[in-house]
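Hey, sorry to bother you again with one of my protein questions. I've been puzzling over a protein and I'd love to understand its fold better. Take your time with it, there's no hurry, and the full record follows here:
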Amino acid sequence: MNTTLRHWKEAATLILAAGHRLGPGSLPSRTPLTAAPGPGAPLTAAPGAPPGSIDGRSHLPHKSFYDYDVLLLKRSSKSRFMPNAYVFPGGMVDASDFSSEWLDIFKSFSNSPNFGLRRVKQPPETRPPMFATDRLKLGSPIPGEVAFRICALRETFEESGVLLVVSKLEEKSLLKNIDGRCDSDKVLHNKASELNSSEVTKWRALVNENPSNFIRMCRELEVLPNIWALHEWSNWLTPTGRRGARFDTVFFICCLQEIPLTLQDEKEIVHFKWSTPSEVLQSYQAQEFWIAPPQFYELSRMCRLPLLNDLHKFSSQRATEGLEQWLPVVFTKDGAFISLLPGDKSYPLDTSEEAQVDTCTESDLESPQDAPALHRSVIVDPYTINVQITIPPKYNHLLPVLEEAAPLDSKSQL
């Protein structure tokens, strides 16, 4: 746990995708509804989709394209950070996530670097600080790659009751896969724990009471947090200038075979929702609920891969490429909030608190095709975000599915 950070607190979140439960007449989640379009391919309607499922305004695939849903949790109105927002499960790292007690839990993997996690190709000097930081110098023998996965798994269990662990029996098979470095990670086999409800309720209450009880739970149940099922996806920083807490958050992604039993905690989380990425974005645009810009961006990326196996294979393979840390730099123009991301032509070299964007060089916001090197979100109002990107994504990542830009009003409703 890095207590030397001045502006941000370290956190981890989990994008949890799960195959649809099988019902009468439904197809298995491993069976494509249609041939999956590639990351840059145009989308066409799936069999049975209603006419106009991909219309002039929306380029999002119809929900019938998907064989998976994504978990979103509604934060309480009393939450200090983003009250009432729908978010992915996750939260702030706890000192126990870096505890040396994990060495005993993971002792079977003591001879494997990073407890058997695959090596990331990204040069160490370009890794995001939360992974590049030498945790031994901060007093912990647990690498950041491991501890932040533990954090994401613990928070997911606390907030939703979904427990992702590996049993002793599965541990032996996992060790063989790691030693042989086979391609088993490309095959979807992840499942949530099948503990009975009373055990889940008991341990969830204890972990909510004290995060260190997550270690105790793993020891007593003889399980390991399934850190190997989580793949690096993105890294977002809360913009400067924002009041209240600000976070340096790593986003992991995990694909499950089917939707697990899910429970809100009635404290921080008051409701949960399993929906396709398109459904979430369309509900947000219809002002049915609110999601933050990072969630909007990542869900728009996922719309490129509407089949669970494709999402799993892509996220597993891409994760070894690495990540770029993104600090949005926000300014106002023409009544809208412009959130610049790294790679945009106007993104400042200096991203400190005092950094300023040279708005004089900004051209007409409604003509992104005329401008080189754009990577930004134009936030017209709380429920309208237009992503503008004309640069290739780094580290072999996905471009978001873009929609036709909404016209800018003379005055923003923000």
User: Anything to note?
Assistant: Confidence is low (pLDDT under 50) at residues 22-58, 408-414.
